[in-house]
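Sanity check

After download, print the first record. It should look like this:
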Amino acid sequence: MDPIQRKLDLIDKQLAGGDFHKRIIRTSPLVFVAVGLIVGIALQEVLGGAGRDDSRFVWMWVTLLGLCGASAIVFFALREGGSRPEVTAYMAFICFVCLGGVRLISFNQLKGNDVSNFVGRIEESGTENTERRLEMDSRPSAGSGQALRGNDSKERENDGPIPARIRGVIVTEPYVNRHREWAFARFKPTDPTSSFYLKLTEAKALDGWAKLSGTVRVQVDGPVLDMKAGDYVEAYCLLDRFKPATNPGQFDTAEHLARRNVFVAASVKSREGIELLKSPPAALFTKVRASIRETTARALLGDLPPNEQGRGILQALLLGYRGQIDSKTYRAFRRTGLLHFVSLSGMHFGILIGIVWWLCKTGGLMKPGRAVVCIFAIALFLLVVPARAPTVRAAVMGWVFCISFLFRRRPNAINTLSLAAIILLLIRPTQLFEAGWQLSFGTVLGILLFEGRIKYAVNEAVERLSCELDYRQFWRVARLVRKAAAGAVGMFSVGVAAWLGGAGILLYHFGTITPLASAWTVLVFPLVGAILTLGFSKILLFF
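Expected structure tokens:
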């Protein structure tokens, strides 16, 4: 950017700035809604905690919400003259604090026939430990023809796995772990195992099949190669609860999966212990999505052999599937701070939207038409890639950007980021406590808050340095260098701002930070950008 233009932009921002508090209320009102939702979820997590009955807090939140609503009605009824944006913003903040608490309670409230109520030990408030056995009863109950019964058995002590025969729909693609990365793999070969998540529909009862809900993580002692997401299966397994971590600093799988309401593991001895049944109509969407994923992967990878080393990198970079990356490569990405390249985010969506936008422009479509095509392209891409927090956040921001062209409005980035946070937390409020969600929003917020200031400071330093050099004899070369430097400064500023936004989160969750991540990003981005552009272009041309 020209130095004069840069100064003018700075003056415009200073003149439009005013009071920061009022500017946020005027330009980004959804910030108050998002922050209120976050505060409410965090407060309810502290008040409720693990193993407690959260339902008693519902009336507290509902009462507070009613008082807030009544106060707002009285305030606006008695007030004469114009409205007060500040009051409206803080009323919205309080209301969404209450909504956040209620939403977390609702998410943690499991159905009565959830599998977790019948497996393992459950510590209930004010009672002794009871063991819930997976025993079914054909007696009718409200809402279902058959009911599951959790029987207290103080006489019997059985904390071991429970034999069961269950049916459900596979909701994730089966992952085959060949254990090649195990430290002692060359000394003690281990047979491959498979794992996937199964959404339960029913289980074998004493008098027939009874309805069962919930999701379990299925572990099979053997490779599962002939099944995919959307298949309806019956499994002969052992059900048991996940055990908490026992060593300090160890990753707690039980806590991690509990955030997703997955409490039970199903162990199957071999592939022969799973029978493929006819898929119900409800699994049609999952099967269509799996078919789209397979077609997209085939369009990208072509005839690459399965053992090709670059196959896993391509799938991770363009489709977000990191299961085929070996642990050594994954650790290298993590050590250098470049893991965001294999985590689908705004950069990937930006390149994809840019390609689709350019193709539509070449085809003669006006901006509203291009925006509509991009909206459908983002929706289709979401069906292909894993629905992680960075992906959904980038998709929401992309949709808002496209919709702004339909209504001829200029979107506000922080307001759009707040909207994405609201949507994700309403879908699954426990995402708030996950490192992936925090890093996704923390880094983007850092970019929005600090990128402009860092870029301005670096450009000022470069301008002072260039004034001391006499490059009039090489003005053509200097112009090319300046253009290249402008791009490098922009990438460096984005990298530093993202690092500032995520460094504290990385340090808290992983005990490490990568100060040179910004420099590595500048060096690697041209190559990664070229790979993404060529890869997305190949996929689009295939369709």
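If your output differs, re-run the checksum step. Summary of this record's structure: Residues 122-158 have pLDDT under 50 and may be disordered.
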